[in-house]
Amino acid sequence: MKDISSTGSFIKFYLNNYIYVDKTKYIRDLIKLERVFISRPRRFGKSLTLDTIATLFETGVEPYFKGTWIYDKWTEPTYPVLRLNFLNFDKNSLEKFNNKLNSKITEFAELNQVTTYKEKEEAEDSIDHLLEQLRLEGRQIVILIDEYDCQMTANINNESLYKQFQEKIKSIYANIKDKFAIKFLGITGVTRLKDVSIFSVGSDINDITNASAYSQMIGFTRDEIKKYYIDYLKLASSYENSCSVDNVTDEQIESLLDRLAKNYDGYCFDEFYKKKVFSTWSVNSFFQSIIENKFVDFGEYWYDNGGLPSILVNYLKAHKLNIFDYLEKGKFIAVSTNDFKNPTALTTINQNVLMCQTGYLTLRSNLKYSEMLLGIPNGEIYKALTSLLAAKFFEGKIKVFNEKGINIIEEGTIDDIVSLLNTIVNSVPYDNYPISSEAMVQSLIQAYLRGSGFDVLSELHEAKGRADLIVNTDNRRIVFEFKYANNDTEAKSKLSEAIEQIKSRDYGNVLPVKDELIRIATVFNADPEVRAFSQYQLVI
Fold it and tell me: What does the alpha-carbon distance between residue 523 and residue 100 come to, in Å, rounded to a whole number?
Protein backbone atom coordinates (compact mmCIF):
# COMPACT_ATOMS: atom_id res chain seq x y z
CA MET A 1 0.00 0.00 0.00
CA LYS A 2 1.47 3.33 -1.07
CA ASP A 3 2.05 6.07 1.47
CA ILE A 4 0.13 9.34 1.51
CA SER A 5 1.87 12.69 1.19
CA SER A 6 0.78 16.31 1.14
CA THR A 7 4.08 17.58 -0.28
CA GLY A 8 3.98 20.23 -2.98
CA SER A 9 6.90 18.59 -4.82
CA PHE A 10 5.99 16.37 -7.75
CA ILE A 11 9.46 14.79 -7.81
CA LYS A 12 9.05 13.68 -4.17
CA PHE A 13 5.87 11.83 -5.16
CA TYR A 14 7.91 9.90 -7.70
CA LEU A 15 10.99 9.28 -5.56
CA ASN A 16 9.01 8.12 -2.53
CA ASN A 17 6.31 6.24 -4.46
CA TYR A 18 3.51 8.27 -2.84
CA ILE A 19 -0.07 8.05 -4.04
CA TYR A 20 -0.36 10.52 -6.91
CA VAL A 21 -3.80 11.29 -8.31
CA ASP A 22 -2.98 11.77 -11.98
CA LYS A 23 -4.10 15.21 -13.19
CA THR A 24 -1.65 15.48 -16.07
CA LYS A 25 -4.36 15.40 -18.75
CA TYR A 26 -5.55 18.79 -17.52
CA ILE A 27 -2.00 20.13 -17.63
CA ARG A 28 -1.51 19.17 -21.28
CA ASP A 29 -4.61 21.19 -22.17
CA LEU A 30 -3.66 24.01 -19.81
CA ILE A 31 -0.33 24.65 -21.51
CA LYS A 32 -2.13 25.50 -24.74
CA LEU A 33 -3.71 28.53 -23.02
CA GLU A 34 -0.21 30.03 -22.47
CA ARG A 35 -1.31 32.53 -19.76
CA VAL A 36 -3.51 31.21 -16.96
CA PHE A 37 -4.78 32.15 -13.53
CA ILE A 38 -6.66 29.93 -11.09
CA SER A 39 -8.03 30.74 -7.66
CA ARG A 40 -8.57 28.08 -5.01
CA PRO A 41 -8.72 28.04 -1.20
CA ARG A 42 -5.67 27.10 0.86
CA ARG A 43 -4.72 23.43 1.20
CA PHE A 44 -6.29 22.37 -2.08
CA GLY A 45 -3.27 21.53 -4.23
CA LYS A 46 -2.41 24.71 -6.12
CA SER A 47 1.29 24.46 -5.31
CA LEU A 48 1.53 20.82 -6.42
CA THR A 49 -0.19 21.73 -9.68
CA LEU A 50 2.36 24.47 -10.38
CA ASP A 51 5.24 22.21 -9.39
CA THR A 52 4.01 19.51 -11.77
CA ILE A 53 3.96 22.05 -14.58
CA ALA A 54 7.44 23.26 -13.62
CA THR A 55 8.83 19.71 -13.56
CA LEU A 56 7.43 18.97 -17.01
CA PHE A 57 9.01 22.08 -18.50
CA GLU A 58 12.32 21.64 -16.67
CA THR A 59 12.90 17.90 -17.20
CA GLY A 60 10.37 16.58 -19.68
CA VAL A 61 8.64 13.30 -18.88
CA GLU A 62 11.76 11.27 -18.08
CA PRO A 63 11.93 9.79 -15.54
CA TYR A 64 9.34 11.31 -13.26
CA PHE A 65 6.18 10.95 -15.32
CA LYS A 66 6.33 7.24 -16.10
CA GLY A 67 2.89 5.76 -15.59
CA THR A 68 1.03 9.07 -15.91
CA TRP A 69 -1.41 10.00 -18.66
CA ILE A 70 0.92 12.58 -20.18
CA TYR A 71 4.00 10.35 -20.45
CA ASP A 72 3.67 9.56 -24.16
CA LYS A 73 1.85 12.75 -25.12
CA TRP A 74 4.18 15.53 -23.98
CA THR A 75 6.07 17.03 -26.93
CA GLU A 76 7.37 20.32 -25.53
CA PRO A 77 11.11 20.97 -25.26
CA THR A 78 12.57 21.96 -21.90
CA TYR A 79 12.50 25.58 -20.70
CA PRO A 80 13.98 27.36 -17.68
CA VAL A 81 11.34 27.99 -15.02
CA LEU A 82 11.24 31.07 -12.80
CA ARG A 83 9.37 29.93 -9.67
CA LEU A 84 8.01 32.62 -7.36
CA ASN A 85 6.05 31.61 -4.26
CA PHE A 86 4.91 34.82 -2.58
CA LEU A 87 4.10 32.91 0.62
CA ASN A 88 7.84 32.87 1.21
CA PHE A 89 8.22 36.63 0.70
CA ASP A 90 7.93 39.33 3.36
CA LYS A 91 4.39 40.52 4.09
CA ASN A 92 5.18 43.46 6.36
CA SER A 93 7.78 45.40 4.39
CA LEU A 94 7.56 46.41 0.75
CA GLU A 95 11.31 46.96 0.69
CA LYS A 96 12.07 43.45 1.91
CA PHE A 97 9.54 42.00 -0.52
CA ASN A 98 11.14 43.91 -3.39
CA ASN A 99 14.65 42.86 -2.39
CA LYS A 100 13.70 39.18 -2.11
CA LEU A 101 11.98 39.24 -5.48
CA ASN A 102 14.97 41.00 -7.00
CA SER A 103 17.37 38.40 -5.63
CA LYS A 104 15.22 35.58 -7.08
CA ILE A 105 15.21 37.19 -10.52
CA THR A 106 18.96 37.84 -10.42
CA GLU A 107 19.66 34.29 -9.22
CA PHE A 108 17.57 32.94 -12.11
CA ALA A 109 19.40 35.13 -14.64
CA GLU A 110 22.80 34.01 -13.40
CA LEU A 111 21.82 30.35 -13.29
CA ASN A 112 20.59 30.53 -16.87
CA GLN A 113 23.53 32.58 -18.10
CA VAL A 114 21.70 35.70 -19.19
CA THR A 115 24.98 37.59 -19.31
CA THR A 116 23.48 40.91 -20.46
CA TYR A 117 21.12 41.09 -17.47
CA LYS A 118 21.66 43.86 -14.89
CA GLU A 119 19.63 44.00 -11.69
CA LYS A 120 17.50 47.14 -11.31
CA GLU A 121 16.40 48.92 -8.14
CA GLU A 122 12.76 47.88 -8.51
CA ALA A 123 11.94 44.19 -9.02
CA GLU A 124 9.37 44.93 -11.71
CA ASP A 125 12.06 46.71 -13.71
CA SER A 126 14.42 43.78 -13.17
CA ILE A 127 11.94 41.26 -14.56
CA ASP A 128 11.15 43.58 -17.47
CA HIS A 129 14.87 43.85 -18.25
CA LEU A 130 15.35 40.08 -17.93
CA LEU A 131 12.55 39.35 -20.38
CA GLU A 132 13.87 41.90 -22.88
CA GLN A 133 17.35 40.36 -22.81
CA LEU A 134 15.88 36.92 -23.31
CA ARG A 135 13.86 38.20 -26.27
CA LEU A 136 16.97 39.63 -27.85
CA GLU A 137 18.64 36.24 -27.45
CA GLY A 138 15.61 34.46 -28.92
CA ARG A 139 15.00 32.52 -25.71
CA GLN A 140 11.82 31.75 -23.79
CA ILE A 141 11.12 30.86 -20.16
CA VAL A 142 8.23 29.74 -17.96
CA ILE A 143 7.08 31.92 -15.06
CA LEU A 144 5.01 30.43 -12.21
CA ILE A 145 3.70 32.69 -9.43
CA ASP A 146 2.10 30.93 -6.45
CA GLU A 147 -0.17 32.84 -4.02
CA TYR A 148 0.16 36.15 -5.88
CA ASP A 149 -2.20 37.89 -3.42
CA CYS A 150 -0.51 36.81 -0.20
CA GLN A 151 0.92 40.24 0.69
CA MET A 152 -2.37 42.03 0.08
CA THR A 153 -4.51 39.55 1.99
CA ALA A 154 -2.14 39.86 4.94
CA ASN A 155 -2.72 43.63 4.99
CA ILE A 156 -6.47 43.86 4.51
CA ASN A 157 -6.68 46.08 7.62
CA ASN A 158 -3.58 48.13 6.81
CA GLU A 159 -4.70 50.51 4.08
CA SER A 160 -1.30 52.06 3.45
CA LEU A 161 0.62 48.79 3.16
CA TYR A 162 -2.22 47.18 1.20
CA LYS A 163 -2.01 49.93 -1.42
CA GLN A 164 1.78 49.67 -1.60
CA PHE A 165 1.65 45.94 -2.33
CA GLN A 166 -1.29 46.47 -4.68
CA GLU A 167 0.72 48.90 -6.78
CA LYS A 168 3.77 46.61 -6.71
CA ILE A 169 1.76 43.61 -7.97
CA LYS A 170 0.17 45.78 -10.67
CA SER A 171 3.60 46.90 -11.81
CA ILE A 172 4.97 43.36 -11.85
CA TYR A 173 2.09 42.13 -14.00
CA ALA A 174 2.31 45.16 -16.31
CA ASN A 175 5.95 44.28 -16.99
CA ILE A 176 5.31 40.63 -17.85
CA LYS A 177 2.17 41.19 -19.91
CA ASP A 178 2.38 40.22 -23.59
CA LYS A 179 6.08 39.39 -23.41
CA PHE A 180 7.44 37.17 -26.17
CA ALA A 181 10.03 35.65 -23.84
CA ILE A 182 7.34 33.99 -21.73
CA LYS A 183 6.46 30.56 -23.08
CA PHE A 184 3.94 29.93 -20.31
CA LEU A 185 2.69 31.99 -17.35
CA GLY A 186 0.80 30.39 -14.44
CA ILE A 187 -0.54 32.39 -11.50
CA THR A 188 -2.44 31.11 -8.46
CA GLY A 189 -4.03 32.77 -5.47
CA VAL A 190 -6.91 32.62 -3.03
CA THR A 191 -8.60 35.79 -4.26
CA ARG A 192 -9.08 37.28 -7.73
CA LEU A 193 -8.95 41.08 -7.48
CA LYS A 194 -9.48 43.57 -10.28
CA ASP A 195 -7.46 46.25 -8.47
CA VAL A 196 -4.20 44.53 -9.46
CA SER A 197 -5.14 44.68 -13.17
CA ILE A 198 -4.42 41.01 -13.82
CA PHE A 199 -8.04 40.42 -14.76
CA SER A 200 -8.91 43.83 -16.19
CA VAL A 201 -9.98 44.57 -19.75
CA GLY A 202 -7.07 44.01 -22.10
CA SER A 203 -5.39 41.43 -19.90
CA ASP A 204 -3.81 38.53 -21.73
CA ILE A 205 -4.47 36.07 -18.92
CA ASN A 206 -7.04 33.27 -19.05
CA ASP A 207 -8.91 33.11 -15.76
CA ILE A 208 -9.92 29.45 -15.42
CA THR A 209 -11.11 29.67 -11.81
CA ASN A 210 -14.65 28.62 -12.69
CA ALA A 211 -14.04 27.10 -16.11
CA SER A 212 -15.92 23.83 -16.29
CA ALA A 213 -13.12 22.10 -18.22
CA TYR A 214 -10.69 22.68 -15.33
CA SER A 215 -13.11 22.53 -12.40
CA GLN A 216 -11.80 19.12 -11.27
CA MET A 217 -8.12 19.73 -11.99
CA ILE A 218 -7.53 20.61 -8.32
CA GLY A 219 -9.39 18.48 -5.78
CA PHE A 220 -10.43 14.81 -5.92
CA THR A 221 -13.46 13.24 -7.54
CA ARG A 222 -15.25 10.25 -6.07
CA ASP A 223 -13.98 8.03 -8.88
CA GLU A 224 -10.38 9.18 -8.28
CA ILE A 225 -10.62 8.36 -4.57
CA LYS A 226 -12.04 4.95 -5.38
CA LYS A 227 -9.25 4.29 -7.89
CA TYR A 228 -6.19 5.60 -6.07
CA TYR A 229 -7.18 5.03 -2.46
CA ILE A 230 -8.89 1.64 -2.78
CA ASP A 231 -6.48 -0.01 -0.32
CA TYR A 232 -7.29 2.64 2.27
CA LEU A 233 -11.02 2.33 1.63
CA LYS A 234 -10.80 -1.41 2.21
CA LEU A 235 -8.74 -0.95 5.37
CA ALA A 236 -11.19 1.60 6.78
CA SER A 237 -14.16 -0.63 5.95
CA SER A 238 -12.47 -3.60 7.62
CA TYR A 239 -12.10 -1.59 10.84
CA GLU A 240 -15.70 -0.42 10.68
CA ASN A 241 -17.15 -3.84 10.01
CA SER A 242 -14.74 -5.93 12.11
CA CYS A 243 -13.70 -8.08 9.19
CA SER A 244 -10.58 -8.79 7.17
CA VAL A 245 -9.62 -6.56 4.24
CA ASP A 246 -10.30 -9.45 1.87
CA ASN A 247 -13.90 -9.74 3.10
CA VAL A 248 -14.85 -6.11 2.64
CA THR A 249 -17.83 -5.79 0.26
CA ASP A 250 -18.49 -3.25 -2.49
CA GLU A 251 -21.55 -2.07 -0.54
CA GLN A 252 -19.39 -1.31 2.50
CA ILE A 253 -16.95 0.67 0.38
CA GLU A 254 -19.77 2.68 -1.24
CA SER A 255 -21.25 3.38 2.19
CA LEU A 256 -17.89 4.71 3.36
CA LEU A 257 -17.58 6.86 0.23
CA ASP A 258 -21.06 8.27 0.87
CA ARG A 259 -20.03 9.43 4.34
CA LEU A 260 -16.70 10.68 3.04
CA ALA A 261 -18.65 12.77 0.54
CA LYS A 262 -20.98 14.12 3.20
CA ASN A 263 -18.00 15.38 5.19
CA TYR A 264 -15.44 16.44 2.56
CA ASP A 265 -17.09 16.68 -0.88
CA GLY A 266 -19.32 19.41 -2.30
CA TYR A 267 -16.84 22.04 -3.49
CA CYS A 268 -17.93 23.38 -6.85
CA PHE A 269 -15.73 25.47 -9.14
CA ASP A 270 -17.80 24.80 -12.25
CA GLU A 271 -19.62 27.75 -13.85
CA PHE A 272 -22.38 25.33 -14.96
CA TYR A 273 -22.75 23.83 -11.48
CA LYS A 274 -22.29 20.25 -12.67
CA LYS A 275 -18.93 19.04 -11.32
CA LYS A 276 -17.81 18.89 -7.70
CA VAL A 277 -14.65 17.86 -5.85
CA PHE A 278 -13.45 16.69 -2.45
CA SER A 279 -10.93 18.62 -0.38
CA THR A 280 -7.55 17.00 -1.06
CA TRP A 281 -6.16 17.87 2.37
CA SER A 282 -9.17 16.46 4.21
CA VAL A 283 -9.24 13.21 2.23
CA ASN A 284 -5.52 12.63 2.72
CA SER A 285 -5.77 13.45 6.42
CA PHE A 286 -8.76 11.15 6.86
CA PHE A 287 -6.95 8.17 5.38
CA GLN A 288 -3.73 8.99 7.24
CA SER A 289 -5.66 9.02 10.53
CA ILE A 290 -6.87 5.48 9.82
CA ILE A 291 -3.27 4.28 9.59
CA GLU A 292 -2.31 6.07 12.78
CA ASN A 293 -5.40 5.39 14.91
CA LYS A 294 -6.65 2.07 13.44
CA PHE A 295 -10.26 3.27 13.43
CA VAL A 296 -12.44 5.52 11.30
CA ASP A 297 -12.72 9.15 12.39
CA PHE A 298 -14.40 11.80 10.24
CA GLY A 299 -12.38 14.56 11.82
CA GLU A 300 -12.09 18.27 11.04
CA TYR A 301 -8.76 18.37 9.28
CA TRP A 302 -8.89 21.31 6.88
CA TYR A 303 -9.73 23.99 9.46
CA ASP A 304 -7.02 22.84 11.86
CA ASN A 305 -4.31 22.91 9.19
CA GLY A 306 -4.49 26.15 7.27
CA GLY A 307 -8.24 26.34 6.73
CA LEU A 308 -8.36 29.65 8.60
CA PRO A 309 -6.37 31.87 6.27
CA SER A 310 -4.97 35.19 7.46
CA ILE A 311 -7.23 37.03 5.06
CA LEU A 312 -10.34 35.85 6.90
CA VAL A 313 -8.81 36.41 10.34
CA ASN A 314 -7.97 39.96 9.38
CA TYR A 315 -11.33 40.56 7.73
CA LEU A 316 -13.20 39.46 10.85
CA LYS A 317 -11.24 41.91 12.97
CA ALA A 318 -12.86 44.78 11.14
CA HIS A 319 -16.20 43.38 10.02
CA LYS A 320 -19.25 41.81 11.61
CA LEU A 321 -20.88 38.76 10.13
CA ASN A 322 -24.49 37.74 10.61
CA ILE A 323 -23.99 34.38 12.30
CA PHE A 324 -27.40 33.12 11.21
CA ASP A 325 -26.58 33.62 7.54
CA TYR A 326 -24.26 30.64 7.81
CA LEU A 327 -25.50 28.42 10.63
CA GLU A 328 -28.82 27.23 9.24
CA LYS A 329 -28.11 23.99 7.42
CA GLY A 330 -29.17 23.92 3.82
CA LYS A 331 -29.57 27.69 3.59
CA PHE A 332 -28.49 29.29 0.31
CA ILE A 333 -27.07 32.80 0.11
CA ALA A 334 -27.82 34.90 -2.96
CA VAL A 335 -25.15 37.25 -4.33
CA SER A 336 -24.74 39.32 -7.45
CA THR A 337 -23.04 37.31 -10.18
CA ASN A 338 -21.07 40.41 -11.14
CA ASP A 339 -19.81 40.79 -7.54
CA PHE A 340 -18.80 37.14 -7.62
CA LYS A 341 -17.01 37.29 -10.97
CA ASN A 342 -15.46 40.73 -10.62
CA PRO A 343 -14.51 41.59 -7.04
CA THR A 344 -12.66 44.88 -7.09
CA ALA A 345 -10.56 45.07 -3.91
CA LEU A 346 -10.31 43.32 -0.56
CA THR A 347 -11.38 46.53 1.11
CA THR A 348 -14.73 46.47 -0.69
CA ILE A 349 -15.25 42.76 -1.42
CA ASN A 350 -18.65 41.21 -0.73
CA GLN A 351 -18.21 39.18 2.46
CA ASN A 352 -19.97 36.15 0.96
CA VAL A 353 -17.69 36.22 -2.07
CA LEU A 354 -14.72 36.30 0.29
CA MET A 355 -16.17 33.38 2.26
CA CYS A 356 -16.41 31.49 -1.02
CA GLN A 357 -12.87 32.29 -2.12
CA THR A 358 -11.50 31.14 1.25
CA GLY A 359 -13.41 27.82 1.07
CA TYR A 360 -16.24 28.33 3.58
CA LEU A 361 -18.90 28.67 0.90
CA THR A 362 -19.11 27.26 -2.61
CA LEU A 363 -21.21 27.51 -5.77
CA ARG A 364 -24.79 26.30 -5.43
CA SER A 365 -26.03 27.43 -8.85
CA ASN A 366 -24.66 28.21 -12.30
CA LEU A 367 -23.32 31.61 -13.30
CA LYS A 368 -25.56 32.45 -16.25
CA TYR A 369 -28.01 34.71 -14.40
CA SER A 370 -27.55 38.13 -12.76
CA GLU A 371 -27.87 36.48 -9.35
CA MET A 372 -26.35 33.23 -8.15
CA LEU A 373 -26.34 31.10 -5.01
CA LEU A 374 -23.65 30.08 -2.52
CA GLY A 375 -23.82 27.48 0.24
CA ILE A 376 -21.72 25.52 2.73
CA PRO A 377 -19.90 22.69 0.90
CA ASN A 378 -19.99 19.87 3.45
CA GLY A 379 -20.18 18.72 7.07
CA GLU A 380 -16.54 19.49 7.85
CA ILE A 381 -16.90 23.10 6.76
CA TYR A 382 -20.20 23.50 8.60
CA LYS A 383 -18.44 22.47 11.80
CA ALA A 384 -15.47 24.72 11.05
CA LEU A 385 -17.75 27.65 10.32
CA THR A 386 -19.70 27.25 13.55
CA SER A 387 -16.44 27.28 15.49
CA LEU A 388 -15.15 30.31 13.63
CA LEU A 389 -18.30 32.36 13.91
CA ALA A 390 -18.98 31.41 17.52
CA ALA A 391 -15.55 32.65 18.54
CA LYS A 392 -16.27 35.94 16.77
CA PHE A 393 -19.90 36.27 17.84
CA PHE A 394 -19.59 35.46 21.55
CA GLU A 395 -15.98 36.72 21.96
CA GLY A 396 -15.51 34.82 25.21
CA LYS A 397 -18.29 36.75 26.97
CA ILE A 398 -20.15 33.63 28.10
CA LYS A 399 -18.26 31.39 30.49
CA VAL A 400 -18.80 27.66 30.59
CA PHE A 401 -17.50 27.64 34.20
CA ASN A 402 -19.83 28.81 36.99
CA GLU A 403 -18.84 30.92 40.00
CA LYS A 404 -17.68 27.77 41.83
CA GLY A 405 -15.30 26.84 39.02
CA ILE A 406 -17.43 23.93 37.82
CA ASN A 407 -17.59 23.18 34.09
CA ILE A 408 -21.34 23.32 33.52
CA ILE A 409 -21.37 20.93 30.58
CA GLU A 410 -19.07 18.37 32.18
CA GLU A 411 -20.32 18.51 35.77
CA GLY A 412 -23.35 20.81 36.04
CA THR A 413 -26.93 19.86 36.92
CA ILE A 414 -29.76 20.04 34.43
CA ASP A 415 -30.73 23.42 35.93
CA ASP A 416 -27.16 24.64 35.43
CA ILE A 417 -27.17 23.46 31.82
CA VAL A 418 -30.49 25.11 30.95
CA SER A 419 -29.36 28.29 32.70
CA LEU A 420 -26.32 28.28 30.42
CA LEU A 421 -28.59 27.84 27.37
CA ASN A 422 -30.58 30.88 28.46
CA THR A 423 -27.42 32.91 28.94
CA ILE A 424 -26.46 32.04 25.37
CA VAL A 425 -29.78 33.09 23.81
CA ASN A 426 -30.00 36.21 26.02
CA SER A 427 -26.63 37.35 24.65
CA VAL A 428 -28.18 37.71 21.21
CA PRO A 429 -29.44 41.23 20.38
CA TYR A 430 -32.98 40.49 19.26
CA ASP A 431 -33.35 43.60 17.14
CA ASN A 432 -30.52 42.44 14.88
CA TYR A 433 -30.82 38.66 15.25
CA PRO A 434 -34.40 37.60 16.04
CA ILE A 435 -34.57 33.89 16.89
CA SER A 436 -37.47 32.78 14.76
CA SER A 437 -37.22 29.01 14.36
CA GLU A 438 -36.15 25.74 15.96
CA ALA A 439 -33.29 25.55 13.46
CA MET A 440 -31.93 28.90 14.66
CA VAL A 441 -32.14 27.78 18.28
CA GLN A 442 -30.24 24.61 17.50
CA SER A 443 -27.65 26.43 15.39
CA LEU A 444 -26.98 29.05 18.05
CA ILE A 445 -26.47 26.53 20.85
CA GLN A 446 -24.35 24.33 18.64
CA ALA A 447 -22.18 27.29 17.60
CA TYR A 448 -21.50 28.28 21.20
CA LEU A 449 -20.67 24.74 22.35
CA ARG A 450 -18.50 24.00 19.35
CA GLY A 451 -16.74 27.34 19.67
CA SER A 452 -16.05 26.48 23.33
CA GLY A 453 -14.24 23.32 22.30
CA PHE A 454 -16.83 20.64 23.04
CA ASP A 455 -17.36 17.50 20.98
CA VAL A 456 -20.71 18.37 19.40
CA LEU A 457 -22.73 16.14 17.09
CA SER A 458 -25.66 17.64 15.24
CA GLU A 459 -28.58 15.46 14.12
CA LEU A 460 -26.61 12.25 14.65
CA HIS A 461 -28.25 9.32 12.89
CA GLU A 462 -29.22 6.64 15.40
CA ALA A 463 -31.20 3.45 15.02
CA LYS A 464 -34.59 5.13 15.50
CA GLY A 465 -33.99 8.72 14.49
CA ARG A 466 -31.83 11.81 14.93
CA ALA A 467 -31.34 13.78 18.10
CA ASP A 468 -31.07 17.54 17.62
CA LEU A 469 -27.78 17.85 19.46
CA ILE A 470 -25.41 15.52 21.32
CA VAL A 471 -22.46 16.69 23.41
CA ASN A 472 -19.85 14.15 24.47
CA THR A 473 -17.42 14.78 27.32
CA ASP A 474 -14.99 12.29 28.87
CA ASN A 475 -17.61 10.88 31.22
CA ARG A 476 -21.02 12.09 30.13
CA ARG A 477 -23.22 12.37 27.10
CA ILE A 478 -25.83 15.14 26.96
CA VAL A 479 -28.68 14.76 24.48
CA PHE A 480 -30.77 17.82 23.61
CA GLU A 481 -34.13 17.79 21.89
CA PHE A 482 -35.13 21.37 21.11
CA LYS A 483 -38.59 22.67 20.33
CA TYR A 484 -39.79 26.15 19.43
CA ALA A 485 -43.01 27.73 20.69
CA ASN A 486 -44.70 31.12 20.46
CA ASN A 487 -46.47 31.13 23.85
CA ASP A 488 -46.81 29.27 27.19
CA THR A 489 -49.62 27.00 26.03
CA GLU A 490 -47.72 25.89 22.95
CA ALA A 491 -44.54 25.47 25.02
CA LYS A 492 -46.18 22.95 27.34
CA SER A 493 -47.49 20.95 24.41
CA LYS A 494 -44.11 21.04 22.66
CA LEU A 495 -42.38 19.83 25.83
CA SER A 496 -44.53 16.72 25.92
CA GLU A 497 -43.74 16.15 22.26
CA ALA A 498 -39.99 16.44 22.88
CA ILE A 499 -40.14 14.04 25.85
CA GLU A 500 -42.03 11.46 23.86
CA GLN A 501 -39.61 11.81 20.97
CA ILE A 502 -36.58 11.13 23.18
CA LYS A 503 -38.23 8.13 24.80
CA SER A 504 -39.68 6.51 21.71
CA ARG A 505 -36.48 6.89 19.72
CA ASP A 506 -34.15 6.14 22.61
CA TYR A 507 -31.78 8.99 21.81
CA GLY A 508 -28.24 8.77 23.17
CA ASN A 509 -27.92 5.04 23.72
CA VAL A 510 -25.11 4.60 21.22
CA LEU A 511 -21.52 3.48 21.42
CA PRO A 512 -19.22 4.31 23.03
CA VAL A 513 -21.12 4.07 26.31
CA LYS A 514 -20.62 6.96 28.75
CA ASP A 515 -20.75 6.83 32.55
CA GLU A 516 -23.61 9.31 32.56
CA LEU A 517 -26.36 9.84 29.99
CA ILE A 518 -28.33 13.07 30.37
CA ARG A 519 -31.28 13.59 28.05
CA ILE A 520 -32.96 16.99 28.12
CA ALA A 521 -36.22 17.93 26.46
CA THR A 522 -36.48 21.70 26.27
CA VAL A 523 -38.61 24.35 24.62
CA PHE A 524 -37.62 27.86 23.60
CA ASN A 525 -40.55 30.21 24.17
CA ALA A 526 -40.34 33.07 21.66
CA ASP A 527 -42.99 35.18 23.41
CA PRO A 528 -41.45 38.71 23.64
CA GLU A 529 -42.15 38.64 27.39
CA VAL A 530 -40.26 35.35 27.81
CA ARG A 531 -37.62 34.67 25.10
CA ALA A 532 -36.07 31.81 27.02
CA PHE A 533 -36.00 28.04 27.46
CA SER A 534 -39.05 28.17 29.71
CA GLN A 535 -39.93 24.47 29.68
CA TYR A 536 -37.49 21.64 30.20
CA GLN A 537 -37.32 18.17 31.69
CA LEU A 538 -34.76 15.48 32.32
CA VAL A 539 -35.83 12.35 30.46
CA ILE A 540 -34.94 9.09 32.19
Answer: 61
